[in-house]
Design goal:
A two-stranded antiparallel ribbon has the order 1-2. The longest helix has 34 residues. It has nine helices and two strands. It is mainly alpha-helical.
């Protein structure tokens, strides 16, 4: 009926958009942030590459598993839907609120802090050492403002609609892929 059509989800992602969305979340920023620490702890490039290959295999297995789950339960909600089906409404509800209040927000904050840290490498005036406000019990530095501003700007951009969000996601994912290809070539 017409009423059902009006309340359904509008399909507005192309295949490229969907691939970039998944690739962007799979690649993440961790490969750029933790590689140096991994190399120090593992001791050799061969062990680091082995760790990344094992992680890649595990990621592909997880992606295939989620693909199967999505085909079996084609509903909006992702992990919430799967947890509700497997364990019931209360664990799914708790998971949903945990993602909203801790998991996703913590991840966003961590990536924003890393972005601010690497921005300060190129623009030292935006670093942690540049204290903008010191109240004794509270210090605000330029790096913190860069992190906050990045979250606010990306949120505002994504809130303007799916079209803007997919354009931004595709751009960032292509930048990550180009950077990875550059690292491989180097």
């Amino acid at each position: 009926s017409m009423a059902t059509d009006m309340t359904g989800f509008k399909r507005s992602l192309t295949l490229l958009d969907a691939v970039m969305l998944v690739a962007g979340s799979m690649i993440g920023s961790g490969i750029f942030i933790v590689s140096a620490d991994m190399l120090r702890q593992l001791g050799s490039p061969a062990w680091m590459i082995t760790a990344w290959v094992v992680s890649g295999v595990m990621t592909v297995l997880a992606a295939l598993s989620y693909g199967e789950l999505a085909a079996m339960m084609p509903k909006a909600g992702g992990q919430y839907v799967y947890i509700q089906r497997a364990f019931g409404r209360l664990p799914a509800f708790m998971y949903g609120w945990t993602v909203f209040t801790v998991i996703q927000t913590g991840l966003i904050a961590a990536v924003a802090v890393a972005f601010a840290k690497y921005t300060a490498v190129f623009v030292p005036a935006l670093g942690e050492g540049v204290i903008l406000l010191d109240l004794g019990f509270l210090q605000v530095n330029a790096s913190q403002l860069v992190a906050i501003a990045s979250v606010v700007l990306l949120t505002a951009f994504n809130a303007r609609g799916v079209r803007n969000g997919k354009l931004l996601q595709t751009s960032f994912t292509l930048a990550k892929i180009i950077a990875l290809l550059g690292l491989i070539a180097a």
